[in-house]
Amino acid sequence: MAFIKYSFLAIAIFTFSTCNLIAKSDTSSSRSNVKERIFQINLEDPGLGINTNFHEVKPIISPDGKSLFFSRMFYPGNKGGITDEQDVYHSRMIDGKWSYPVNMGSPINTHGANGLISISPDGNHILLLNSYKGTSAPVSQSFKNEDGKWSQPEDIKIYSYYNNSIYADFHMAPNNRTLLMAIERNDSRGDQDLYVSFVLDNGQWSPPLHMGDIINSKGAEFSPYLSADGKTLYFASTGHEGYGESDIYYSKRLDDSWTKWSAPVNMGPQVNSPGWEAYYSISNISDYAYFISGTKSDSKTRNVYRLPSSHIDYTPETTVLIEGNVEGLNKETVTVKVKDSETGEELAQAYTSKNSGKYTLMIPKVASIDISAKGDHIFGFNKRIDLSDVKVKTRIDLKAEPLSKGGNIRMNNLLFKRTTPILLKESYPDLKNIAYLMQRNPKIKIRIEGHTDNVGHEKAKLKLSFDRANMIKSHLINLGVKESRIETIGYGDAKPVAPNDSEENKQRNRRVEIKILSF
Prior knowledge:
The protein is mainly beta. It has 3 helices and 35 strands. The chain has helices at about 430-440, 460-480, 505-510; strands at about 15-25, 35-45, 55-60, 65-75, 85-95, 95-100, 100-105, 115-120, 125-130, 140-145, 155, 170, 180-185, 195-200, 210, 220-225, 230-235, 245-250, 265, 275-280, 290-295, 300-310, 320-325, 335-340, 345-350, 360-365, 370-375, 380, 385, 395, 400, 410, 445-450, 485-490, 510-519.
């Protein structure tokens, strides 16, 4: 089990060696029917200076495999010295070795117990244990500024959160949308159980959802880790059949309910021993998986094991790294969101840097995606991208429209059935983005302007342009926007943006624009 404030998981790192341990011959056998055999775990030296004579606590490997975060307990180099419960330290992978760890300093480290939970794929967003404001919030978040410094941690709000145990674990999936937690609640099956929460449009998190009886047992389930594929789950348990006191297991999510999983599979003798194993993580980019192994009764024997991923049978599914830039931000941080075009499932989200507009995210390998940028003072168009030929990595740049009084937003993705005001389903993402903007900015009033090409009778073109503008208005009202904030007008073919001399130009003229009347 893990402590909500800190964990007595001492970490020792060894030079490359072989460790002979006793284990069962079959991971499915019960703990009471031990069939002994010798197996080997390869321990490799990640670098010098990671460990001291003091406690080093739960390591976190960044998704790119280039950063290692961990905490030291009651260490002289902590912010409050030897009486400081726990500070976070950072080491970087340089030429295949971990650099000498550096105290992360303020505002991440205080005179209390500090621990890092997760880091985003771009390295600019971290989750931290506890509240930095003195509230009951169990988790905080911080963003890296342009100068490389971290922002003051802010509480994360999880609706209906409570925990009946003094122990808790948290893990933010690489998609920045899914928060796993190991806590004890009224519907838990015994000790700590695994729960999941999802980010909402207001930036807060949904009530914890129990992840079902396939994963959870009467024992303790803890140290969850969800791969970037969104399906592959690793966790530790004292309740499932295994080798020792606590073993690490692997399972696959089977549907979108988050309660149906494949039967947990013991990670086997490459990972688990008769002792205590937990805190397994594997980056889709790194060549190694990391976990802790040791003896439950003596925290000083719990060590960090680094195992080559080529030695592991249960690895995540293929993922794609997406990098890009959002233009037109005007020093605003916006959210880039990605959906599976076929299923509509939210795959991942990332936050841009304020000045450069850069973003990075990791998603499961799918055929095509819908990607968009969303902010309080910009309109980010939805864009469909074919990923069928992408193997590992791709770049997608986006353009955002800053909002201003009198400004126009041309809605290229509001598509209608030909010669009718009937909206096609491809239009819905942009309609939702408009509604989001107006809800976040209650002073905005807009005018929806409909336009056509030069084909048809004048009265028919004028009516069609009005009807299309009113259709959009109707959808926005259904999405929660007050009717008093929306005007409509139809211009027919009176205001072309291109000569009507080709089908391509005619298509450009068949458009809808939104004018910002007040902001």
